[in-house]
Amino acid sequence: MTSADPARNRDNFCYRHPDRQSFVLCQRCLRTICPECQIQAPVGVICPECLRDQQRAASPTQRKAERRWGRRGGAAVAAPVGMGRPLATYWIIGVTAAVYLLQLLPGSPVTGWLLFNSAYLVPQLGAFEPWRVLTALVVHSSWLHIGLNMLALWMIGRILEPLVGHARFIVLYLIAGLGGSVGVALLAPFTSVIGASGAIFGLFGALLVIGRHIGANITGIAVIIAINFAFPFVMGLLSGSMSSIQISWQAHLGGLIAGAAVGFIYARTRSARRRGLQIGLLIGLTVLLLVLLVIPAATAGI
User: Fold this and answer.
1) Which backbone phi and psi does 177 adopt, to 5 degrees?
2) Ranges of the chain with pLDDT below 50
3) DSSP code at position 42
4) Would you state the pLDDT for residue 40?
5) Angle formed at CA 272 by CA 270 and CA 277, multiple of 5 degrees
6) For residue 79, is it left (φ>0), alpha (ψ between -120 and 50) or beta?
7) Exposed end of the chain (fewer CB within 10 Å): N or C?
8) SS3 (DSSP) at 21
9) pLDDT score recorded for residue 6
10) What digits encode the pLDDT tens for the residues 120-135?
11) In the chain, what are the domain boundaries?
12) Can you tell me the distance from the alpha carbon of 224 to that of 79, in angstroms, rounded to the nearest whole number?
């Protein structure tokens, strides 16, 4: 994410690359650093200058240990810069694009196999296929649909993934996608939906919460979320009918809430000694979302 006028808010721009916006701080000097400048350290990320200072201050014994164990990841002072690359983001985009290409094949049944409908959560209605709560994330209706979603994922992933790490980013994406399916099941039961919009809104929600926690300026993020969430309602008013708008605001809302919840968990359990608590809270949130998926069956009188 870049800006033509970084001087307006220097705190949110990399001190080495003033044209690059970021919400990640060096854990030692607390200066803002972009993904290219982030170096993974045992206690978060640090900037290149702090890494050099740390290496100069190391004792001969520490240098010897680093040479011996650095490549194994046990006692290295810092990992290569490449560790800050949003690799999980690229993988998600690649898998989603590959599935869309399969959708384009003549007579392809991929969309029907992977779309989500809460009816697939009710065994009495026929097929019981609960995995669809997540597989719907990788199918899309058009080039514009997948293009906008993957562009948003790429833009957010470059900021958020280096901040939380590869594994946590994937967990966030999946839980947000699950939250989107829960929103559809509760607010628009037995409606078929496809697309990664719920997960994308979850990333927005997490970025909003984490950005607020680290003291970043989140006004721009909040405005983007408000515009995107209001868009289907505005289009419905202009067209005179909400039923004519093929946008699932229910998935957006569910994903946003779930993503914000994951972001809050990450922000409150950042230290290594709270790793167990973080995992427990994430499991608890996932179980809660799965329990909420039972409601459509109950409301249907089954």
Assistant:
1) -65, -40
2) 1-8, 65, 68-83
3) T
4) 75
5) 75
6) beta
7) C
8) strand
9) 43
10) 988 777 788 999 999 9
11) 6-84, 87-299
12) 34
Distance CA 214, CA 83 (A): 21
Catalytic residue among 22, 118, 181, 197: 197
Q: Which of 291, 248, 258 lies closest to 176, judged by CA? A: 258
Residue with tokens 């199918």: 139
Q: Exposed, middle or buried, 208 (CB in 10 Å: 0-12/13-18/19+)?
A: buried
Residue 268: HSE in the Cβ half-sphere, 13 Å Cα cutoff: 13
The closest of 12, 43, 76, 58 to 220, measured between CA atoms, is 12
At 194-213, the pLDDT tens digits run 999 999 999 999 999 988 88
Bridge partners (DSSP) listed for residue 275: none
Catalytic site includes residue 197? yes
Q: How far apart are CA 23 and CA 38, in angstroms?
A: 11
Q: How many CB atoms lie within 10 A of CB 211?
A: 23
Those residues whose C-beta lies under 8 Å from the C-beta of residue 276, and which sit 6 or more positions away, are none
Amino acid at 165: G
What does the alpha-carbon distance between residue 161 and residue 236 come to, in Å, rounded to a whole number?
34
- Closest to 48 measured CA to CA, from 64, 34, 62, 69: 34
pLDDT at position 243 = 56
Provide CATH code, domain 87-299: 1.20.1540.10
What secondary structure letter does DSSP report for 1? -
Helices assigned H by DSSP within 165-248: 166-187, 197-213, 219-239
Select from 253, 237, 135, 258 the least CA-distant residue to 195: 135
Does the reported pTM lie above 0.90?
no
Return left, alpha or beta for 26; rule: phi > 0 is left, psi -120 to 50 is alpha, else beta.
beta
pLDDT at position 235: 61
Which residue in the list 22, 145, 181, 252 is annotated as catalytic? 252
Q: Which pLDDT does position 85 carry in this prediction? A: 81
